[in-house]
Write a structure and sequence with these properties.
Blueprint lengths: L1 E6 L2 E6 L6 H8 L18 E4 L2 E4 L12 E3 L13 H8 L9 H14 L5 H7 L10 H18 L9
Parallel strand pairs: 1-5
Antiparallel strand pairs: 1-2, 3-4, 3-5
Helix pairs in contact: 2-5
Bound molecules: FE2/S2 (inorganic) cluster (FES) (2 copies).
Length: 165
């Protein structure tokens, strides 16, 4: 089966088993290794990417289901002249990353969340992280950073992930 889709803004074509998990194509064929394959069962969130702007675990997404879709990985998340998405920059500035294994998936989940919930509270931010496991257990620092990022953006009338807050 041939599947065509957009990958980080470029045309992409896959020919092979339609049940091949998207994460394997990203990592093994496209060498986009920012997307991590950890549990491969939908529990950890490390493989999260955006499919048509929705955060989804790519280990559970057969390639056939992305036919005609726009897929964005951590490598394609930033836009314009910005090398990092605002959340990535905030995590870096706050030194919130420990081993880093969970972070690509965490950023992909949370970037979609802040885009859609620019006025999110701490409990709402925590609820948005339930699908992303951090084995280094740095959760509070991550929540602090997301909350600070949204707060500062609101005060400055800036953008976080493409929406005015
Ligand atoms: S590798 Fe996909 S959810 Fe864990
Ligand atoms: S920073 Fe190590 S798993 Fe989250």
């Amino acid at each position: 089966m041939t599947v065509t889709f957009q990958l980080n803004g470029e045309d992409c074509r896959f020919h092979g088993d339609p049940m091949t998990p998207l994460v394997d194509i990203l990592r093994q064929e496209r060498f986009l290794t920012g997307t991590k394959a950890v549990c491969r069962e939908g529990f950890c969130g490390a493989c999260t990417v955006h499919v048509d702007d929705e955060a989804v675990p790519s280990c559970l997404k057969p390639i056939a289901l992305v036919q005609g879709c726009a897929v964005t990985t951590i490598e394609g998340l930033s836009s314009g002249n910005h090398p990092l998405h605002p959340l990535q920059a905030a995590f870096e500035a706050a030194d919130a990353v420990q081993c880093g294994m969970c972070f690509p998936g965490m950023v992909m989940s949370l970037s979609a969340f802040v885009r859609d919930n620019p006025h999110a509270s701490r409990p709402e931010i925590k609820a948005a992280m339930v699908g992303n496991i951090c084995r280094c257990t740095g959760y509070e620092r991550i929540v602090d950073t997301v909350a600070d990022c949204l707060d500062q953006a609101r005060k400055a009338g800036q953008l976080v992930g493409g929406v005015h807050v």
